[in-house]
Amino acid sequence: MLPAELEQRAERAVRRGELLVALEHFEAYLAQQPDDERIRSRMEAVRALLQPSELVSRRRAEPEEPQSGSPPHSDAAVGELHASSGRFAEAAEAYERAVAGDPQNVLLRERLEELRSLSNPAGKADLDAGEKLDPAPAANGAQRGAARSARAHAASFAPLPGRALPREPKALLEELLQRVRSGRRN
What we know:
The chain contains 9 helices and no strands. By secondary structure, the chain is mostly helical.
């Protein structure tokens, strides 16, 4: 296939959102024209749109081993499974194996660092710095409003200070429009 046709197919695949297919076409183009920096930079821009797990589990033209039963999962895919379940320590271990298999892959290393930071948070939450609430009301629900925090109370929909709003609908709308135009709430 001619390089121009490969480039067109790659750009069409990008427009359709088939980024892995586009990368395959860009790679085939670069195999024929290895010195084309324009295509190389376009390929890197498309690669930047992919998640690390997508790059690791790229489909291959020829499988490395015959498929029997269920396909084996890559370490990055296993790491993503653990991460999606909130098991960040296990995900980091899987990504460590993936990075050991491909130490030049920057995306794998970045995801590993991200998972390490999620599995070992920098510090514990400062529970004493939080806002203190009054104890829960009695079981009969006598004073429900007493358990509201000061912030919630301050943000309530209390009447606007200043003069009272008129009751007649037309006068009410005129007053509200006047307040909006003047940029004041009272």
